[in-house]
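Annex B. Sample input.
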Amino acid sequence: MIRICDTTLRDGEQAAGVAFSIEEKCQIAGMLDEAGVHEIEAGTPVMGGDEFKSVSRIAGMGLHSRVVAWNRAVIDDIRVSIQAGATSVALSLPVSDIMITRKLGRERAWLLARLKDAVSFAKDSGLYVCVGAEDASRADMDFIIEYAGLARDYGADRLRFADTVGVLDPFKTFAAISQLRQAVDIDVELHAHNDFGLATANAIAGAYAGAAFVSTTILGIGERAGNAPLEEAVMALKHVAGMDTGINTGSLGSLCGYVGAVSGRVIPDGKPVVGGRIFAHESGIHVDGVLKEPTIYEPYGPEEVGKKREIALGKHSGRAALAHRLSMLGVEVGGDDAGPLLVRVKEMGARLKRPVSDNELLSLCGA
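Annex B, continued. Sample output.
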C-alpha cells in the first residue's frame, strides 16, 4: 500500500496569505484522520505561539494517523517538538550545492555532521524520524545516495526526496527514485511541488519507482504554485496506477470544501476530482454515450467522490439529453415538437452562456 503524508498544515499553510486558526487546524487534522490519511505533518513547533499550541493539540487528539512535527536539523528544534508531544519528526536539510553554499554558507562535510547529530539525538529520544533532502531534484545524485545511506545508518526511518522548486518531470522522477531505492535500503517519500503543473504526475512516477510515501496537500495549496493535491494523487494512484492508499475517497469533497473555505481558495468547476461540474455532460455525443453506459465517458463514477451526474442542456445538446431531461420532469413532447424545442434550448444556452435550468426548459415547452 502506498502511504500518504499530508502536509496541508505545514507546507500548505506556507502559501502566501493562508493562515489557519488552531481550531481550523484541529478540524483539518480530524478530517484527514477520518479519511484514512496515514500521516499528518502538523506544523513547526519551534515557531512558538499558536503554531506550538496547534501541534500540541493535534498530537494529543488520539488520532490513528501518525502526527509529524517539522524541524530544521537542529537539536533545539527537536527538543521543542518533543515538548509539544510529538513522537515523530521530520528533519530537513538542503542537499543541493546551490542551497548548501548560497543559502547556508556551508559545505557538504558540515551538512553531514549536522545530519548525524540531529538524527542521532532524535533516535536516542525514541522518535520516528523522516530525514528531508531539500532540493534533492537539483542535487548531485551521488551525494544524495551518500546522504541517504548515512541517514539510514544513523537510524532514520525514511528519506524525503523533495522536488523543492518543481523542476522534475515524471521520467526524471522515476529514474531518480529508482536509482536511490536500488542504492540505499531506506523507505523513500516523494515530495513534489507544482511549479510546472507536474506534481501529481511526479507523485505517481515516484510511486511507480518504489517510493513508499507520497507527500500531498489538500487542493495542492502551498508555496508558489503549491504541491501535489491530495485528491488528485489519491484518485490517480487508485485508478491510473492501481495502487491502494487506504483513503476513503468519499470524504475528499468535504475535505477540499472545508480547506477551500478556510484558506480563501475558490475551487474551480473543472478542478479534477472535486470540481462542481466534473460530472456535468452537455455535448450531444457525450450525453448519448453516458446515458447508455457511464464508463464510456467517465473514468470513475461520481458516487466514488460523493458527487452526482448532471445532464446539462445548452448550446451543444442533442436529442438524447433533451429527452432525458424531459423524462426526469415528467413532460411529454411530441416528435414533431422535439426538433424546434431543441433549437430553442440551444439558442437559450448560447445566449445565457450557461446550462438551461429546469424552470427555463418548462417555460420553453410552453412557448
